[in-house]
Write a structure and sequence with these properties.
The chain has 348 residues and is an all-alpha fold. The protein folds into two domains: 2-261, Up-down Bundle (Sodium/glucose cotransporter); 276-348, no CATH class. It is built from 13 helices and no strands. It is globular, with a radius of gyration of 22 Å. The mean pLDDT is 83.
Length: 348
């Protein structure tokens, strides 16, 4: 999202963090503001195709430049931490990337993101039928698997590339590796394509965030609490105004994120995992039980967030467990605190 824009702009544009973030965010705001969800979906489709094809091309060119090609890369990867190993069946609460954490934690994370997150749910609701929504969810699993496989492969290939062609100065952040390779080692025309690909990925994430944040702000807060009776044109105007407001907020978040020296992807997933646990717990209370009440559900969500705050502050448990912990605590507390005689449906 905005985190990646900041790191990307510093390397590509060489204009500093603030100007690059403002430029990219403003461009994304423009088409999101004018086109709404339709513009977001179609630009996402185009940007996905561009950045996947651009990344694949960059990987092929890097392999071509490495003496020995893939054979040399695989040998380097094997003797430097076995980077091509797919599964690690060990168990350690502190290590985030192990098989069981991927299986269990990934199940909870995917269930929360694809079942409760407005960013995904608004796309499913835009489908013409439930069957299309189900097909979209299944297809997204395949696409995400291929996408992550491609970028993991790119990471291994770039490791081999910079082993043979070390940079003049060490990278300050891991997110600088790929943009630096694009700028310094790709032919001019190809570099332009890959720059467009990375920009497309950043803008796709931003546009989706703008649209979902504005939509949920209007539907969940503005409409029920401030203006319950108004025509659709009024709510559309408010949503567009809130799109601009959220744009400013995300710019500030991107600037603050520069102070955290972690992978952009890991930082974003860690932050998202904190509310995801409570969101999924609330969803499961509504779907799996008939006794959940509104106050008890809110208490469960608060307990889930408080528990995760304590886990993050006082333990070294890996972030891949956060959604599972938040979900289980929210569900357990919400269920225990609910009266068996009244439910959320009864209250409605």
């Amino acid at each position: 999202m905005a985190f990646g824009v900041a790191a990307f702009g510093t390397v590509i544009f060489k204009t500093g963090v603030l100007p690059s973030v403002i430029i990219i965010t403003a461009l994304t705001l423009f088409y999101t503001y004018r086109g709404g969800l339709t513009a977001v979906i179609w630009t996402d489709v185009i940007q996905l195709l561009i950045y996947l094809s651009g990344t694949a091309l960059a990987v092929l060119l890097a392999l071509h430049a490495i003496p020995g090609g893939w054979s040399a890369v695989s040998q380097l990867a094997a003797v430097n931490g076995n980077k091509l190993a797919v599964f690690n069946f060990g168990f350690n609460w502190q290590q985030p990337y192990l098989f069981w954490k991927g299986l269990i934690g990934g199940t909870f994370l995917s269930s929360a993101s694809h079942g409760t997150d407005q960013l995904i749910v608004q796309r499913l609701l835009a489908a013409k039928s439930m069957r299309q929504s189900q097909a979209a969810v299944m297809a997204s699993g395949v696409v995400v698997f291929l996408q992550f496989s491609l970028f993991l492969l790119a990471g291994v290939v770039l490791f081999g590339f910079y082993h043979h062609f070390p940079p003049a100065a060490p990278f300050s952040r891991p997110d600088e590796v790929f943009p630096s390779f694009v700028v310094k080692h790709l032919p001019m025309g190809v570099a332009g394509l890959v720059v467009a690909a990375i920009l497309g990925a950043a803008m796709a994430n931003l546009s989706a965030a703008f649209n979902s944040l504005a939509s949920s702000s209007v539907v969940d807060f503005y409409k029920p609490f401030l203006r319950p009776v108004a025509d659709e044109k009024h709510y559309l105007r408010v949503a567009r105004a809130l799109t601009l407001v959220w744009g400013v907020i995300l710019i500030l978040i991107a600037l603050l994120a520069q102070q955290v020296h972690r992978s952009v992807l890991e930082l974003a997933l860690t932050i998202a995992s904190v509310p995801y646990g409570s969101m999924l717990g609330i969803f499961l209370l509504g779907v799996l039980t008939k006794r959940a009440t509104g106050p008890a559900t809110a208490l469960g969500a608060f307990a889930g967030l408080a528990t995760l705050g304590a886990v993050m502050a006082f333990t070294s448990i890996a972030w891949t467990w956060y959604v599972a912990i938040g979900t289980l605590v929210t569900f357990a507390v919400g269920w225990a605190a609910s009266s068996p005689k009244r439910s959320v449906k009864d209250e409605g």
